Amino acid sequence: MKQGKRLAKAYETINAADVLPLDEAIKAIKTGATAKFDETVDIAVRLGVDPRQSDQMIRGAVTLPAGTGKTLKVAVFAKGPKAEEARKAGADIVGDEDLMNDIMAGKIDFQRLIATPDMMGVVGRVGKILGPKGLMPNPKLGTVTMDVTAAVTAAKAGQVQFRVDAAGTVHAGIGKASFSEQQIADNVKAFVKTLVGLKPASASGVYLRQVALSTTQGVGVKVAIPTIVG
User: Fold this and answer.
1) Which CB contacts under 8 angstroms, 24+ apart, belong to 51-54?
2) What local confidence, expressed as pLDDT, does residue 71 receive?
3) CA distance linking residue 198 with residue 205, whole number of Å
4) CA 189 to CA 213: how far, in whole Å?
5) Residue ranges of the alpha helices (H) in the chain?
6) Rounded mean pLDDT of 104-125?
7) What is the pLDDT of residues 52-66, one digit of tens each?
8) Burial class of residue 106 in the structure, from the number of CB atoms within 10 Å of its CB (0-12 exposed, 13-18 middle, 19+ buried)
């Protein structure tokens, strides 16, 4: 079935204006995930913030209880004992100036980059390459740290990084359609709880304005917020 016909069929049972309890929303997106591959479950949370204000630029990371369903390839900028620690923790790539040279040459075979603080001078030399790809290590995300074991372990365990966009919405992949309904629910609640914990003191009005779930090729479903945080 072509994607257009498949989506049309899915929308026959889902009204885009409906706001469903979390359990019903999860059932709906799992039913609509009919692609021939294991679709990613995506969450979109619209927040009552103004990203133009520096203190309202929501950004962070959360380790999801059920993981994400995929394993990230992790690179670490470190040297000496910290480089060995990173390897023992399961880092796929470990280096210093050699890693910098690979990045400058366009060889970026990883999805998460961690660095020890003493390596940030080297990392900064490829910042213009890493930044646009969302790979620049950041202390707020726990990717600039001396505890490389914890950082690598978190990345491998299903840690998701997120950042609010210009419209005030946070997007993230939080699992797979093959996950159980309980696993998806646990991940949704953990993700939203993290966002609630990051609410800026300067944000006024309603903070959590809308939550929606979807799959890679499926329909979007709005979720009743009280069934997530209530």
Assistant:
1) 51/164, 51/165, 51/166, 51/168, 53/200, 53/202
2) 85
3) 15
4) 12
5) 3-11, 22-32, 81-89, 97-104, 120-124, 127-130, 148-157, 181-197, 226-229
6) 97
7) 999 999 999 999 999
8) exposed
Residue whose structure tokens are 């996950």: 179
Residue type, 5: K
Q: Would you give the DSSP letter of residue 104? A: H
**DSSP SS3 for 63:** strand
Helix (H, G, I), strand (E, B) or coil at 59: strand
Quote the CA–CA distance of 38 and 110 in Å, as a whole number. 21
Higher pLDDT: 164 or 8? It is: 164
| pTM, rounded to two decimals | 0.82
C-alpha to C-alpha distance for 111 and 77, rounded to whole angstroms: 14
Integer Cα distance of 170 and 45 in angstroms: 5
Nearest C-alpha neighbor of 116 from the set 88, 144, 84, 86: 144
* Residue whose pair of structure tokens reads 């930044």 in the numeric block: 131
Which two three-digit tokens encode residue 102?
A: 């690979």
Of the pLDDT bands very low, low, confident and very high (cuts 50, 70, 90), residue 70 is confident
User: Could you tell me the strand order of the sheet in which 74-77 lies?
Assistant: 93-95, 74-77, 112-115
Pairing of strands 93-95, 74-77: parallel
* Pairwise CA distance, residues 2 & 34, whole Å: 11
